[in-house]
Amino acid sequence: MWLRVSTFLYLNDFDAGVQHVWGIEIFTKSEVEAVNGTSVKLTCTFSSTEPVSLQTASVIWDFRSITILYYQEVPYPIEEGLFNGHVQWSGDIKRKDASITLNNVRPAFNGTYFCQVTNPPDVHANIGETVLRVVDKVTLSEISLLGAIVGGSCVVILVFLGVFVAVRMYKKRNKENDIEMRVEEYRNKQPTVW
Question: pLDDT category, 21, cuts 50, 70, 90?
Answer without folding.
Answer: very low
